[in-house]
């Protein structure tokens, strides 16, 4: 409780000193909140997963080239080496023939997951906005109460000065002056 009051007090001082408004508080919070950043990162990951799922439905081609060199000399250490090269070129085509609908289901799943992540991001942002606006309004209310309390204190001090002056003139008793100091 004390920590919360201290944070509110510090926020109140900053608010009074720099005259911050709600946008000055809300925008940095939305940009730097860890939950918002995590949801945005999850959304990017989902976009890559959706791309990979779509890519798996199409045929893929791979091309490999290999050039092997080896010594073809029959007698060791007597003749000059006879090197031979065997170039090799491989072309592979992979195409999904029958997947029992798993590829299309995976694409649909990734799309739905992306929509869910988008809604989750919006929910997180709205909850954060709600919390910040609530705290901002609490600070404004406490600020107003503080201003009113300060005004009441100034009025009470002025009234006490009046009572002291009236006491010095002998118009009221010491007991009435002590009651006024309470």
TrEMBL record:
Under the GO molecular function aspect, what terms does this record hold? efflux transmembrane transporter activity; porin activity
**Keywords, comma-separated and alphabetical:** Cell outer membrane, Membrane, Transmembrane, Transmembrane beta strand
Q: Where in the cell is it found?
A: Cell outer membrane
Taxonomically, which superkingdom? Answer: Bacteria
Instruction: Give yes or no: UniProt keyword GTP-binding.
Output: no
| Record-linked InterPro entries | TolC-like
Keyword Membrane in the entry? The reply is yes
Query: Which cellular component terms (GO) are annotated to the entry?
Result: cell outer membrane; efflux pump complex
Recorded hits in SUPFAM superfamilies, A to Z, give: Outer membrane efflux proteins (OEP) (SSF56954)
Classify the main location.
membrane
- Check the record and name the PANTHER family matching this protein: OUTER MEMBRANE PROTEIN TOLC (PTHR30026), SLR1270 PROTEIN (PTHR30026:SF21)
Name of the featured protein? TolC family protein
């Amino acid at each position: 409780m004390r920590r919360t009051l201290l944070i509110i007090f510090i926020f109140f001082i900053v608010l009074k000193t720099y005259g911050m408004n709600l946008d000055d508080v809300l925008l940095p919070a939305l940009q730097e909140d860890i939950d918002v950043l995590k949801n945005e990162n999850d959304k990017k990951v989902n976009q890559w997963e959706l791309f990979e799922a779509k890519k798996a439905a199409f045929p893929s081609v791979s091309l490999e080239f290999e050039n092997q060199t080896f010594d073809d000399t029959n007698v060791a250490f007597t003749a000059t080496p006879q090197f031979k090269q065997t170039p090799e070129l491989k072309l592979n085509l992979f195409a999904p023939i029958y997947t029992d609908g798993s590829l299309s289901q995976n694409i649909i799943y990734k799309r739905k997951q992306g929509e869910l992540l988008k809604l989750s991001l919006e929910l997180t942002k709205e909850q954060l906005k709600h919390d910040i606006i609530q705290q901002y309004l609490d600070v404004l209310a406490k600020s107003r109460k503080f201003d009113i309390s300060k005004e009441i204190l100034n009025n009470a001090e002025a009234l006490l000065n009046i009572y002291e002056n009236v006491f010095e003139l002998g118009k009221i008793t010491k007991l009435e002056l002590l009651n006024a100091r309470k």
